[in-house]
Specification:
With 130 residues, the chain is α+β, with helices and mostly antiparallel strands. The chain contains 3 helices and 4 strands. The protein has a domain of 85 residues: 2,3-Dihydroxybiphenyl 1,2-Dioxygenase, domain 1. A hairpin with a 5-residue loop joins strand 3 and strand 4. The chain is globular.
């Protein structure tokens, strides 16, 4: 039986795509493409976190508070290689965290908002113990 093997892209609407792309480049250091998006290499994330890198695709109940303070019905989780370093970059750009950093056995998390009001979850995976 054929099956889905991963997320091939995330596409979203915004008022000013060029400004949103510029914000993601400036604040999070993403490298843009000619078509206006960003590409993440599975090879790069798996090379950094051989067992901890993964993509989660998960529905939430419509009354969940997890996306707050965003009023949007989508939240992005972006995998990072150095959360503390990225948070310094984010703060230098005047972007504030919306929740305290959380540390779990599967990774460390921080949350910010993008210029369109979407919550972004920044996640530095941890390699599982054997």
């Amino acid at each position: 039986m054929a099956k889905v093997i991963g997320v091939g892209g995330v596409f979203f609407l915004c008022q000013d795509p060029e400004a949103t792309q510029a914000w993601y480049k400036r604040v999070l250091g993403l490298e843009g493409t000619d078509f206006g998006g960003f590409v993440f290499s599975h090879e790069k994330s798996a090379g950094t976190f051989p067992k901890g890198a993964m993509t989660i695709f998960s529905p939430f109940k419509s009354d969940s508070d997890y996306f707050k303070p965003s009023e949007r019905d989508v939240m992005f989780n972006l995998m990072v290689d150095d959360l503390a370093g990225l948070l310094k970059q984010v703060e230098a750009e005047g972007v504030e965290q919306v929740s305290p950093v959380e540390d779990h056995d599967y990774g460390t998390f921080a949350w910010i908002m993008d210029p369109d009001g979407r919550k972004i979850e920044l996640w530095q995976p941890k390699e599982p113990a054997s």
